[in-house]
Each structure stands twice: as C-alpha cells, then as structure tokens.
Amino acid sequence: xxxxxxxxxxxxxxxxxxxxxxxxxxxxxxxxxxxxxxxxxxxxxxxxxxxxxxxxxxxxxxxxxxxxxxxxxxxxxxxxxxxxxxxxxxxxxxxxxxxxxxxxxxxxxxxxxxxxxxxxxxxxxxxxxxxxxxxxxxxxxxxxxxxxxxxxxxxxxxxxxxxxxxxxxxxxxxxxxxxxxxxxxxxxxxxxxxxxxxxxxxxxxxxxxxxxxxxxxxxxxxxxxxxxxxxxxxxxxxxxxxxxxxxxxxxxxxxxxxxxxxxxxxxxxxxxxxxxxxxxxxxxxxxxxxxxxxxxxxxxxxxxxxxxxxxxxxxxxxxxxxxxxxxxxxxxxxxxxxxxxxxxxxxxxxxxxxxxxxxxxxxxxxxxxxxxxxxx
Length: 376
Fold this sequence. Notes:
The protein is of the alpha/beta class. Helices cover 39% and strands 14% of the residues. The chain is built from 14 helices and 14 strands. Strands 2-8-7-6-5-3-4 form a 7-stranded mixed β-sheet, with helices on both faces. A 3-stranded antiparallel β-sheet has the order 10-14-13. A two-stranded parallel ribbon has the order 1-12. The chain is globular, with a radius of gyration of 20 Å. The N and C termini lie far apart (46 Å). This is Aspartate/methionine/tyrosine aminotransferase. It comes from Kribbella italica. Keywords: Aminotransferase, Transferase.
C-alpha cells in the first residue's frame, strides 16, 4: 500500500463531503430511504430480509443475487458473476490478478483514479486521453497505436466519469473486437450504465467478448451506494477463480444484509433506473439555465450518459481557486480538475465535476449564484 499515492478524490471528500452544506458534485443518483426500498421487495425478497441470519456469506456472493445480476446481461449464468464490496474492491483485485511486472496496460483518461494508479503500481501503463475538443469521443485509433506486444489490458469507463461521455456504438464494438483480436483483456467500468437519456445503453463488454470483464455496482445508476455491493461479470471463469482467491485477502465475503437489499433493488431495477433517469432529466434544465446565465465563465455540455459532467470554468481566478473559495465561503462542493489529473496524459486544468443525480439542487445553485454575484 505504501507504493500507492493518496486517493485524491477520497482525500478531498474526507475533508468536505459531509461538512459542506451542498454536495453539488455527487457521483451517485439520489438514494432511497430503507423503507422505500423494502416496499419494492417481492415476496421472496421480503421473506429473505425478515428471516436473515447474520452469518458469513459466500465469497462469490449470494447465489440468488448472482442469478439476478446475470439476468442483466445477455446469456450469462450466475457462475459468470462475482460480487465485491463495492466497485473499488473489484477494480483493485482485478488489476492485481490480471497484471504483473513486464506487462503493459492502456488506460483511458480522465477516469476514476484507481483505474490508473493501481496498474501503475504493477506494470508499464500508457494513457489515451478523451479530448474535450472532440466531444470526449472514444479514439480507437489512438488506443490501437498505444498497444504493444506485451499489452495485457485495456481499461475504459463508459458512461465516463467525470465527462459523461458515451462512445459511438460502432467505435465501442470496434474496440471490443480489437482487444479480442490481439488477445488483450478489456476491463470495462460500466457503473453508470442505465442513466442515458437520449440514446440506448451500450452493449456490455462481457456480452460482446468471451474474455472481457464488465464492472458494475449498486452505487451509481441504482443510487444505493451504502450497500457497498459491486460485481464483475466475465465469461472466462478461470479469471473469476483467481478473483475469488484474491478476495480471500480483502473483504472475504460481502455483508449479508447488503446482499439481500441489493437483490431487492435489482429485482426492482426498472423502477429504480426510471426514477433516477427522471431526476437527471428534471435537473438538466436547471443546470443548463444556471450556466447559460454566465456564458463568460462557464462552458457546459450535458452528459451523454450517467449523472456527472465536466464543465469548463474560464474565470480569471482559475478552477482550483474557484472550487476552494466556493466550498469555504458558500458551502457548495465541486471537484476541481486536479482531482482527475493524470500522470499519463494532459488533463484539462480548467474543468470541474458537477453531479446531476441528486434531488432539489436549486438551493445549491442559488448559493453558488449568490457567491458569484459577490465576486463582482
């Protein structure tokens, strides 16, 4: 662990997430009260909850939960799924199982920091940047140019955190084919899948490839981060066997209550995703109007998927100073560009992350607007 750098996002959140008055950079959709989630339970889910004994659970996850997760893919079986304590454990263990010294990995940027720093701790890594001037489009040619004979892994995240980018389906399927043809594992972080408003969700990587890994979690699109239940789906069961043995050194098994609640949530997934898409759809005009009132300061584009985006700030003080002053003086929390700075590629220094998935953002936007007026 000493070799890993500070996790900038979590360090920043440790300072501000629960002390700031307005969390306007939340990466998850609005969570539900326990009572509302339990009200969605079918008879089996309710009986499981009421009769639950608080013992250890299976390392790979509750069989009924893995069965329900498998139903979210095309033709997968429960044995193609392994559950983890959130998505971060899945990322951490997958990178340590799939990579070793002498290997090479390609990581798309900007991205969740662990997708870059964990591979860098293990092997040589090349970054390929999504570029704002291209609308954050997936550049498969750039990824292909970055490949080497020793490349073992390509890691991507769509809908992207923090940009909200979703690639063209043809480009996405070309990337999957490229990895398969070269014998390279594709690690696909798909935690925001299901929050697209104006386009269908991309096919999941593991539905397109016999070796790809698809990562998902109850935290983001489903809006249930407190459950700490994530999973990796992969049709190569030998990889899941290795992940199981690796998990014996971390969480060992998941929380029994969380697994039952995740099962209830997944069985009600259409209701949850419809609800959370509705929140984003209601919020988008509010944010668009806010940024449109300050065209000299902000350049805003709605996310193509997910509930976060990466607007540009053009103020003379710079985005880092703006974010710091805003949270200290007005209690409005944003994530500045430095949180997403990459050691591999140039990250735009004038961006900040905004979250669009929480209910009632108007008080936060009002506080931000009042702060801007005081700045002159």
